[in-house]
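hiii so um. not sure if this is the right channel but i have a protein structure encoded as tokens and i wanna go backwards to a sequence. like what aa goes where. can anyone help
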């Protein structure tokens, strides 16, 4: 899942991003509304965690732009105000969910994951295929009943492959969904991660390489 965090309090923004990355999400961070609009125009995000009171361009205008562009991106709006009228106003702008500050990080993570599931066709919360069982909320992976410990990027790649339901996923798509914008697209990070993931999942291999196209399960 790829997430954009838009928050002008840099310490909070960086802390949220770090926490979400530990949950195997690819996260980009910006600190004002203008930069947010630039990222939205360039990258495809599953979820935008959007502070409402932003410098340069207000969060309301960023939300309106996402709606006007018809993007499948879901918006979780943050604000220091917990008034019902503010929550209603934010949702009427097109936000999909609303979370007042201060918030528990566990709740933020759960809401981001729930919104991420809504950007694509409905899938069960626990993904299963070819003897592999992945629970995004618990961050658990099992193969044939045996738990497998994965690094965050390995977990993210496996989740993307399972969500494709047998379709081929290109290296570029994996890079977009499992890594943030600071990753060099010319590195072999995808190939290396898939290789270590295959090794951890064991035999027989379930990740198939489709020459010139990508990978599938």
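sure thing!! here u go:
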């Amino acid at each position: 899942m790829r997430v954009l965090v838009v928050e002008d309090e840099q310490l909070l923004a960086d802390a949220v991003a770090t926490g979400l990355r530990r949950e195997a999400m690819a996260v980009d961070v910006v600190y004002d509304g203008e930069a947010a609009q630039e990222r939205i125009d360039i990258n495809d995000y599953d979820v935008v965690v959007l502070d409402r009171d932003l410098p340069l361009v207000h969060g309301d205008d960023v939300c309106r732009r996402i709606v006007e562009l018809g993007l499948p991106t879901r918006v979780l709006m943050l604000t220091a105000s917990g008034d019902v009228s503010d929550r209603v106003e934010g949702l009427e702008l097109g936000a999909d969910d609303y979370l007042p500050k201060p918030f528990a990080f566990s709740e933020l993570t759960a809401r981001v994951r729930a919104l991420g599931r809504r950007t694509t066709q409905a899938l069960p919360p626990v993904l299963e295929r070819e003897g592999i069982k992945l629970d995004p909320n618990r961050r658990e992976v099992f193969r044939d009943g045996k738990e497998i410990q994965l690094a965050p990027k390995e977990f993210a790649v496996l989740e993307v492959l399972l969500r494709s339901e047998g379709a081929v996923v290109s290296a570029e798509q994996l890079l977009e969904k499992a890594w943030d914008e600071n990753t060099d697209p010319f590195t072999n990070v995808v190939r290396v991660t898939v290789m270590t993931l295959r090794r951890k999942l064991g035999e027989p291999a379930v990740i198939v390489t489709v020459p010139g196209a990508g990978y599938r399960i």
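oh and The first strand starts at residue 2 and ends at 6.
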